[in-house]
Each structure stands twice: as structure tokens, then as C-alpha cells.
Design a protein that fits this description.
The protein is globular, with a radius of gyration of 15 Å. It has 3 helices and 6 strands; from the N terminus they run E-H-E-E-E-E-H-H-E. A 4-stranded antiparallel sheet has the order 2-3-4-5, with helices on one face. Helix content is 22%, strand content 18%. By secondary structure, it is α+β, with helices and mostly antiparallel strands. A hairpin with a 7-residue loop joins strand 4 and strand 5 (62-63). The structure holds zinc ion. Zinc ion binds at residues 34, 36, 39, 41, 54, 56, 59, 61. Residues 34, 36, 39, 41, 54, 56, 59, 61 line the site of zinc ion (ZN).
Length: 105
């Protein structure tokens, strides 16, 4: 099984598919309400990279890509989130215990 970061969905389309409405339609960084339950802060999301961060200092809702967002909002672990986003390539030749390659950014 291989993790293919290039298969990650377009961030702005992904966020919209998760019911997020941005206050802007253009630009790289967009603002919306934080998705963490109990937090009424403003979240910044990057429409190009999928990075997101809540502006509330005490809130830890942040991540570097749409995969992190999927994990933060659904509680899924890395593999489950990657599978949900369709970025795990099933490869019958690789060992079932092989870890996917994770890009470092
Ligand atoms: Zn927040």
C-alpha cells in the first residue's frame, strides 16, 4: 500500500465538500469559522496547500494539509483518513505491515 500525496484533492474543493463556507472566494488564505466543537474562533485555511489554523490562541485546531484536516475533524487516524481521501494506492506486492511514505514539509 502506497501513500500518494499527489492524489490529495484540491484544497478549496475539499473544504467545500466538508461544508465549509469561506468568507472570501478568492485569494490564498481564506477565513471561516473554526471547526473545533466549543471554539467560536476564526480559522484561516490555505486554498492552495490545505493548511489551516485557528486564530484563537488556546485552540489547537491546526494542520498542514487536507489530510490533517480530515483527521482533526473526523478523529480518523492517518491510514483511515488517507483511505477516505483516496490517496492510498493498494499494492498487492507490498507487505501489509509496510508503513506509507509520508512527505515532510
Ligand atoms: Zn478554534
Amino acid at each position: 500500500m502506497t501513500f500518494d500525496r499527489n492524489q490529495l484533492p484540491d484544497p478549496s474543493a475539499f473544504f467545500e465538500s466538508r461544508g465549509i463556507e469561506f468568507r472570501e472566494r478568492r485569494g490564498r488564505w481564506r477565513t471561516t469559522a473554526c471547526r473545533r466543537p466549543g471554539c467560536d474562533g476564526t480559522m484561516l485555511a490555505n486554498a492552495c496547500t490545505g493548511a489551516f489554523t485557528c486564530m484563537t490562541e488556546s485552540c489547537t485546531f491546526r494542520g498542514g494539509d487536507v489530510l490533517s484536516f480530515e483527521m482533526e475533524t473526523t478523529g480518523a487516524d492517518f491510514m483511515a483518513a488517507a483511505r477516505a481521501l483516496g490517496v492510498l494506492i493498494e499494492d498487492s506486492r507490498s507487505s501489509a505491515t509496510a508503513m506509507p511514505e509520508v512527505g515532510h514539509e
